[in-house]
């Protein structure tokens, strides 16, 4: 497994956190108000669920939360297409991975490289075009490099997940043109939490015979808050309906078992106008790689983060927030013989500071804005026989400004971001990767959003953007066999910026608990960095002298277009026999075309739709959902169509009391008719080996205190 972090990794962020916290707390010299009266820091969604313990039980008291992601001005209502999962909804939706947890939300899919490697996709875009965040900070890993690399995120300890799609995501840079996924926990507490609060959960069953559990504890005083969490999950090979592959017929996905575990501690100094905190976390995951039946991945990520907020520090300045993190990621691919084949390592640091000026009331309306700075650096290496990229260094700095104008029913928001990015190869295999080389880029992004309240619950929204993304190190320097995709991939050191212009329009209606939203969007790329087949084959010579031929794929810029529709709805129905009923539906459609060749872009989800009915009565909750996908036959010439499917799911949950504790047990029944189904978003080399899960029963118990 990965080595333990060295002391420099820990000391500098801890020192920074203590210095910031001590100096600010000393400067304030003010008593902290009791937790019941303390104003929640703006955007503090993470504490809303974890702090609701004891008498304030989650199913009896709903706290008003503000969306964090893409909302630096802490608005209660956003025009941008934002989705959030928290509370019971997150508990019942939570899967083995973040991609599995979010799959099925309108516009959100997954790469699904088996049950363990499952990264979210948005509006047909994946990889470095979907920004993965941890508490609004960068998530350092290798998941965008290869489909078989898992995200180092344990959904069991998350309190909230937010998804931001479309042009509004450009606050986080050009590599968020597809969208942003923000995994939120309470590892750096933001509120006073006197006494002891916590959540404990155990989970059993499912298609992978999962055995898992987590404990999350929060406590402290009015001047200090602390957090501890730990989680462990074991799973066997996933059961699926009987299918036929290169191995013959089977009812299990080969080499798909896993064992993941994580732990974290954190604490914050609290003062009357904010907080300053630090956290340390450690995540391990060992799992099988389905495409290689005798290969296992041993992964570890260690992360140390500090964050804080100071409200009203100076006249005219409403808030200053900051966060810094240092992460060390390592995973090694272990052959069946026990030999380590390839070792991937990534050391990354990132920081973000935002200053929000106070609202100015003018003749025509109110103006408020935020100025921010973001800094990132990453050192990556891949050593071994399957290393397809050299060692690299990536450095980035960005300044961004967002201003919002609001007058009556009108709301306008304009934003701009300028970046300086350096990507350098440090050499390695001279024959394949050549001499060290450095590329410098200056991407710029602009966005304009608007919303208008029509009355009677209706509103319109629009988002326009122009974005630029610097190519990644693997798009520039790759030169080797990529086992996960079964191809020889070649980068292009002369690639320029990826450039896109996007627009999305929305019509929304909300009245009481009823809520409907329709979004249409289009993104045009003047330079889309695609991985396309060259039409040539590469002959490889093995250690035993044998040869193997694999297709060659090249990274190159093409013109492309993406467009689609997303519909979400939630409609309460008349009660029946005391049961409160709610109808839910989603529909999404995405089309992507390579405008240079006329071919469809690869790995796009087909038309998908879901229809659900939720019934609530007292402590009982019952959910039935039918989710379907149309046949996907709009595929590139070298891909194959994917059959459509329909899957029926049923959830049953009941809240009850254990003394003064709030508890909930739940049952999840998946794929009730045992339908054989495949994910069209999977890369072709894995799709036929990994059907979606078969019929299964999953049980869990959650206790809050």
UniProtKB/TrEMBL annotation:
InterPro entries: Beta-barrel_TonB (IPR000531), Beta-barrel_TonB_sf (IPR036942), Plug_dom (IPR012910), Plug_dom_sf (IPR037066), TonB-dep_rcpt-like (IPR039426). One of its GO terms (biological process) is siderophore transmembrane transport. Residues 294-672 form the TonB-dependent receptor-like beta-barrel domain. GO terms for cellular component: cell outer membrane. It comes from Roseateles chitinivorans. One of its GO terms (molecular function) is siderophore uptake transmembrane transporter activity. This is Membrane receptor protein. Residues 75-180 form the TonB-dependent receptor plug domain. Its main location: membrane. It is found in: Cell outer membrane. Residues 1-27 form the signal peptide. It is a multi-pass membrane protein. Keywords: Cell outer membrane, Membrane, Receptor, Signal, TonB box, Transmembrane, Transmembrane beta strand, Transport.
């Amino acid at each position: 497994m990965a080595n333990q972090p060295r002391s420099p990794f820990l000391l500098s962020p801890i020192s920074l956190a203590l210095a910031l916290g001590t100096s600010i707390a000393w400067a304030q010299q003010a008593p902290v108000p009791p937790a019941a009266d303390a104003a929640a820091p703006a955007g503090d969604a993470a504490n809303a669920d974890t702090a609701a313990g004891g008498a304030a039980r989650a199913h009896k008291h709903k706290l008003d939360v503000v969306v964090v992601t893409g909302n630096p001005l802490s608005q209660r209502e956003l025009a941008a297409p934002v989705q959030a999962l928290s509370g019971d909804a997150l508990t019942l939706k939570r899967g083995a991975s973040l991609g599995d947890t979010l799959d099925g939300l309108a516009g959100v899919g997954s790469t699904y490289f088996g049950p363990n490697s499952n990264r979210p996709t948005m509006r047909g875009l994946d990889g470095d075009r979907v920004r993965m965040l941890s508490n609004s900070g960068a998530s350092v890993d290798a998941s965008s490099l290869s489909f078989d690399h898992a995200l180092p995120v344990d959904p069991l300890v998350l309190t909230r997940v937010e998804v931001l799609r479309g042009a509004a995501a450009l606050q986080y840079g050009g590599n968020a043109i597809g969208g942003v996924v923000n995994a939120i926990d309470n590892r750096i507490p933001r509120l006073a939490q006197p006494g002891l609060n916590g959540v404990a959960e155990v989970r059993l069953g499912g298609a992978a015979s999962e055995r898992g559990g987590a404990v999350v504890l929060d406590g402290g005083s009015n001047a200090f808050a602390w957090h501890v969490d730990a989680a462990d999950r074991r799973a066997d090979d996933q059961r699926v309906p009987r299918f036929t592959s290169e191995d013959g017929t089977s009812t299990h996905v080969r080499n798909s078992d896993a064992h993941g575990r994580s732990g974290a501690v954190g604490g914050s100094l609290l003062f009357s106008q904010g907080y300053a905190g630090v956290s340390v976390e450690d995540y391990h995951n060992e799992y099988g790689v389905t495409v290689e039946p005798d290969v296992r991945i041993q992964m570890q990520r260690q992360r140390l983060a500090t964050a804080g907020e100071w409200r009203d520090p100076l006249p005219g300045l409403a808030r200053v927030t900051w966060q810094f993190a240092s992460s060390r990621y390592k995973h090694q691919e272990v052959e069946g013989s026990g030999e380590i084949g390839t070792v991937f390592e990534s050391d990354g640091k990132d920081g973000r500071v935002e200053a929000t000026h106070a609202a100015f009331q003018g003749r025509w309306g109110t103006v408020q804005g935020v100025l921010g700075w973001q800094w990132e650096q990453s050192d990556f290496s891949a050593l071994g026989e399957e290393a397809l990229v050299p060692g690299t260094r990536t450095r980035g700095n960005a300044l961004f400004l967002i201003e919002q104008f609001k007058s009556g029913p009108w709301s306008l928001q304009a934003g701009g971001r300028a970046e300086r990015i350096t990507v350098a190869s440090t050499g390695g295999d001279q024959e394949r990767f050549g001499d060290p080389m450095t590329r410098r880029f200056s991407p710029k992004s602009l966005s304009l959003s608007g919303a208008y309240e029509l009355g009677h619950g209706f509103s319109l929204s629009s988002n326009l953007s122009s974005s630029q993304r610097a190519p990644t190190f693997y798009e520039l320097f790759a030169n080797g066999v990529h086992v996960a995709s079964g191809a020889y991939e070649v980068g292009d050191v002369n690639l320029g910026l990826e450039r896109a212009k996007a627009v999305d329009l929305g019509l929304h209606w909300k009245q009481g608990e009823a809520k409907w939203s329709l979004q249409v969007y289009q993104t045009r790329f003047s330079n889309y960095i695609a991985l396309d087949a060259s039409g040539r084959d590469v002959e490889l010579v093995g250690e035993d002298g044998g040869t193997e031929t694999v297709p060659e794929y090249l990274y190159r810029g093409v013109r492309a277009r993406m467009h689609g529709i997303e519909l979400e709805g939630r409609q309460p129905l008349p009660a029946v026999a005391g049961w409160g009923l709610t109808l839910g539906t989603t529909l999404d459609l995405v089309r992507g075309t390579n405008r240079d060749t006329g071919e469809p872009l690869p790995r796009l989800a087909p038309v998908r739709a879901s229809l659900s009915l939720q019934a609530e009565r007292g402590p009982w909750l019952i959910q039935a959902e039918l989710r379907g996908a149309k046949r996907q036959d709009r595929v590139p010439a070298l891909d194959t169509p994917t059959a459509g499917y329909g899957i029926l799911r049923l959830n049953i949950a009941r809240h009850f009391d254990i003394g003064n504790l709030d508890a909930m047990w739940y049952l999840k029944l998946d794929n009730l008719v045992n339908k054989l189904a495949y994910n069209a978003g999977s890369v072709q080399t894995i799709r036929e080996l990994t059907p979606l899960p078969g019929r299964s029963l999953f049980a869990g118990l959650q206790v809050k205190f």
